[in-house]
Design a protein that fits this description.
alpha/beta; seven-stranded parallel β-sheet; 12 strands
């Protein structure tokens, strides 16, 4: 088994990946900056199952500033999940933060990976690089038309990964995740907001008319694809969940799963939010053996169960 560096280890997807890699027998070095994007206690709780386990070490540090060459000398493979998320927050004065955490940090990590001779570099990108689909599933070679500064920063990082693969010989893979959900989802994301509103008996505000559609990917399925990418041929892969739903359909599923009434109000669409995402994951199926296993309602139920256990803790630490 190998030594894997997971950047963004305390985050939503990263913490699930750490647990998966440890279960598979890998040695894992986790790095996280614990930025203020959301409450630190949530991230610490994400890693509760990994801390103290044999084979896991957590390092707190900022990829834009820390010594990465020493870090990379201790790793055979890298999964880069760290970065600044969020379409709506990426406009205006926040954009320098996206450049630093999504672009500069990726370049520094790639430079260190070259010197460290890593066996595989896996970069977590986003379906947002495509913009809205044009009425059908998007394939990896389709045009990329980012609709927000966040999406542009992810595309810039992708281009860096491709550049270092071509010119510096890094065996690199890019995974374009399509709306990942499930336990530990970030608190500002749509399903998290809907579930929290259900348990707290308060209304939710929906940006747009509720008919916008997303290709939804359960976090366990995204982790399956990510773990497989460590051993599969380098390349660019869409990672979709095989289930598309409108915002209104997701809200209705939350109502069914929780048994609660959630009132919704509607407002203008937020800048950068796309109308529809739709993944063609055929390449991932062929090369990674990727098969989404969790349907939308089952996945929402898992997220709602996790959120219910979090409610009392959130109230105590808010």
């Amino acid at each position: 088994m190998s030594r894997v560096l997971v950047c963004g280890a305390a985050g939503f997807i990263g913490s699930h990946l750490v647990e998966r890699l440890l279960a598979d027998g890998h040695e894992v070095i986790g790095v996280d900056a614990f930025t203020g994007y959301y409450a630190r206690w949530r991230k610490e709780r994400n890693l509760a199952g990994a801390l103290g386990r044999e084979g896991f070490r957590l390092i707190e540090g900022d990829l834009a500033r820390m010594d990465l060459e020493g870090l990379l000398r201790r790793a055979d493979r890298v999964v880069h999940l760290a970065g600044e998320p969020g379409v709506r927050r990426s406009w205006g004065p926040n954009f320098p933060k996206y450049l630093e955490r999504n672009v500069l940090s990726t370049e520094r990590l790639l430079e260190a990976a070259v010197r460290g001779g890593v066996e595989r570099f896996v970069y977590a990108s986003s379906s947002s690089v495509y913009g809205s689909d044009r009425g059908g599933p998007v394939r990896e070679e389709d045009p990329r038309r980012p609709a927000s500064p966040y999406a542009l920063s992810k595309l810039a990082a992708e281009e860096l990964v491709g550049l270092y693969a071509r010119e510096r010989g890094i065996p690199a893979t890019v995974l374009r995740y399509f709306t990942v959900y499930g336990p530990r989802q970030r608190p500002e994301m749509g399903l998290s907001q809907f579930i929290s509103a259900a348990y707290r008996e308060r209304p939710v505000k929906i940006f747009g008319d509720g008919s916008q559609r997303r290709d939804m990917t359960f976090v366990g399925d995204a982790v399956d694809a990510t773990a497989a990418a460590l051993d599969a041929p380098p390349g660019v892969y869409n990672v979709g969940g095989g289930t598309r739903a409108s915002v209104d359909e997701m809200l209705e599923a939350v109502r069914r799963v929780t048994g609660r009434t959630v009132e919704a109000s509607y407002g203008p669409a937020a800048p950068g939010d796309v109308r529809s995402t739709w993944a063609d994951s055929g390449r991932a199926a062929r090369d990674l053996g990727y098969r989404p296993r969790v349907g939308l309602e089952e996945g929402i139920a898992a997220q709602a169960g996790w959120a219910a256990s979090l409610e009392s803790l959130a109230g105590a630490t808010a």
